[in-house]
Fold:
Amino acid sequence: MPVPDVKEKWGAEVVSVVIGATKAEGGTREKTITVGGAKTIPFIKYEGNTGHRPVIAMDVLDVVPPEWPSALLEALGDCVRDPVEWAKAAVGRFGADLVCLKLDGCHPDKGNRPVEEAVAAVKRVRDAVGCPLIIWGCDDETKDNELMPKVSQAVKGERCLLGCAKQDNYKTITAVCHADGHDLIALAPLDINIQKQVHILISDMEFPADRIVMFPTTGALGYGLEYAFSIQERSRLAALGGDKMMRMPVLVDAGNEAWRAKEAKAEDADAPAWGPKKERGPAWEMLTAVTLLQAGADIIRMRHPKAIATTRRVIDDLTS
Amino acid sequence: MIAVGERINGMFKDVKKAIRNKDKAILQDLAIRQTKEGAKYLDINTGVAVTPEEQPEVMKWMVHAVQEVCDTPLALDSQKIPVLEAGLSAVRRPAMINSCKCDEAYLDQFLPLAVQHGASLVVLTMTDKGPLQDVDGRIEAIGQICGKALEHGLEFDRIFIDPVIFPVNVDQKQPGYLMQVFQQIKVISDPPPHTIVGLSNVSQGTQERPLINRTMLVMSIAAGLDAAIMDVLDTDLMDAALCAEMLLNKQIYSESFLRAGRM
Structure:
């Protein structure tokens, strides 16, 4: 008697989103990156097409990071003094696939830089690297509504991935992304129902389905990882099952979240039983990233070079 | 839930007139509106005012008219091979053959037709002798239908079992029997074939038709029904179906879940 075929067959797939535009397409990127496209659950290649390879975006701030943990700053070195040097190192010796330019300097509590300075930094980074760009606001809604339209204008034609649209604040960024040809990150605070609603609101503005990336918010190891995993898993299964409003590729923020944990940032003297900080922090970040890869992660924002290298090796193994 | 929009049927006055006058616009309007309300298939039925000799050509004409304005897959509503073949030759996307009875002779004709055209097939638990009227008889027939489907190579994802709904005022035990069939079919195989009903039949000749249809649909979905030939233009009916699916965790809730469910 033949063994029955127990492979799962899914009726739908995750949308593919292209980030970046080459000269032929009206931009100046050396290459584009495509994310998403999974037709089955992560890495189960024998069941079907597992989609495009997950990519790593290294966080680059527009200002010198004010209070980052020493373990992180020591690993990054001097390049953090200038976003251009940092971006070049990110896709150069640190091995990231693309850069996530995080415009923290504009945040009212982190420097409150004028919008024009951030836009100038964006242009310099754009001119310095050929990789596709994620550009993320300062996470203050009022400032971002002033900042992101100018950013969008400045990089018009480059098909950048801009962040973020939220349930209570999506109209401005959705409109400018639409007009300037960018992709859009849709954020929800670890709430799958709100996540779906944000996608509906964006789609109501006629924003194209193949330019939306989902950011469900990330919980780091020890700080919500399992909950984030369960939401990503449920979202991915809904996408494969045909839910048109959940079929976006997923972005994970492993770097920022993991390095908030005391386990990642504590000095050796303060936590001698936890092991050396130069391994602890990157391990915390890497474990957050690698765990969430299993639930369907298409873009991972990361910070520590060692965490990036290890996560990259895991992705190599799982996609080979 | 797979909603098959029932409206493009020659038994309705407007469609009958459209067929007689070769007026595409009426059919196209119904196609677009039903799609907008969430129909995953559009049922296309020439109706009996069209003679059997004319039905193949009319079916072809109706398919072309609808496909001019929308991409929604079509359910070809006829039990006659020449009519179905005419429709199948014209469709652009995999169609649903609606339907055939479950006598072995019919299954040996219709299953290969579905396989050949990449189509789905609706099979009634009904033979030339009449519809099966109890739960066990229906389940037995379904088992046989599944066996024949395996034999002919049609995967269960493309079989839609219609356990034949009776008007409730003809036999009030039948809705309950159908609920049992929807539950028990899941034991027959994994994955099981789909289930489908011609929903409006349950209220044929009764009062409170919309209420009866709506309640029957919700109860059936809870029992495991996953497809229905129904009036998708009845907003309350579609809303109730989408709500039932959400309550069964088959659709993720969002504030606009009634709109999202129609996308």
The two ends of chain A are 33 Å apart (CA to CA). The interface with chain B takes residues 9, 192-194, 196-197, 200, 203, 234-235, 238, 243-246 of chain A (CB under 8 Å). The longest strand of chain A covers residues 55-61. The mean pLDDT of chain A is 96.
